[in-house]
Amino acid sequence: MTPRLPQRAETVVIGGGIVGTCIAGFLAEAGMAVTLLDSGHAAGSTSNAGSLHVQMQSRFMRLYPAQVPGLEAQLPLYPLAVRFWAELGARLGLDFEMKLTGGLMVAESEEQLAFLGHKAARERALGLDVEILGRSDVERMAPYLGPAIVGAELCRDEGKLNPLAANKALAGWTRGLGVDRRPGVRVTAVAADTDGFVVESDAGRMACRRLVIAAAWDSGRLAAPFGLAIPSVAEPLNIAITEPASPLIGHLVQHADRMITLKQLGSGQVVIGGGWPALPAAGNAAPGLELDSLIASATLGLHVVPALGQLRILRCWAGNNTVVDGRGVLGRVAGHPGLAVAIPGDAGYTLGPLAARMVADDILGRAPMVDIEQFRPERFNVALPAQAAGDGGGNGQ
């Protein structure tokens, strides 16, 4: 049985994924007493594949073309976010098993290579370090790729980490700072109160002075009573991991036209992801595995890296990505003192700690390390309904 919540807290963070965890830690470092609530189910961070993305993902560009301008607007954040991961680990003395080996987005045709060339030009204009490689360069740099690959876009700032190690280390950091972590608590509603806010949950009612909504796809529901129509949507995805192997895949590998990400962890295991859909689930349940997606992703992985055929898949799982409008939703909410929202944007695990730092600085009255104005929640302002209400859903990335 989940312990009952205390009646009052100074600061409550809803969502215990990478974003909520880091915000709680940064605020606690500044001397705030923080309670972190997390439902612990259907999570994004705890089911993440560990990619550190920098270049625009072709999958996102195809599925959400209307959101590409928003993605481009925050593209300069991605290399900063990867560096921030490294700096955070070094500052805290934590090992995230992070490797910046570079990323390759591969092409199988001249048409796909031309698409990468156009994409790379847009990315370079926004400050990314990318270049286009021909077949000979690909063979020299990544001999493990299959014969169908005719070229690739190289982004040297991309890499990978072990999300299980990172999540565990950062949770331990927050506990050491005195953060009151409350797993297994589903928030059913939030509202403004005379002294701040009231949080209703299946573990009781809690009042607080400050409230941070960092609940990934569930953030839109929780923010609605405050006049925000954030279109946060859960996107369930399949992921698989193989048995350990000797060093094989040296980069974060993606495809110019098809859904795949491949990376090899320090353990030798290869993670197969890339956005193949899983089965959606209602409310707080975890998404379900989609057999067709698992077969398709494994088949495509074998096509891109033929040596994967020697390995067995040991485990498959599904998690939720969060889609909004291509940009993060970050910062304090105008008209509601003490309220903030933190949704990082596409490739949210990559952006997580940096986005959390930006929001924490905004809450603390410090100038964020990156200008936060274009990411503020007010761009989703709507007329406040006569009676705010909210129920259902599953908060907590």
From TrEMBL:
Q: Which domain of life is it from?
A: Bacteria
Q: Decide whether keyword Transmembrane helix is in the record.
A: yes
User: What does the UniProt keyword field contain?
Assistant: Membrane, Oxidoreductase, Transmembrane, Transmembrane helix
Q: Where are the transmembrane segments?
A: 12-37
According to its record, what are the GO cellular component terms? cytoplasm
Domain spans labelled FAD dependent oxidoreductase: 11-361
Alphabetized Gene3D superfamilies for the sequence: D-Amino Acid Oxidase, subunit A, domain 2, FAD/NAD(P)-binding domain
Q: What is this protein called?
A: Glycine/D-amino acid oxidase-like deaminating enzyme
Q: What organism does the record attribute this protein to?
A: Polymorphobacter multimanifer
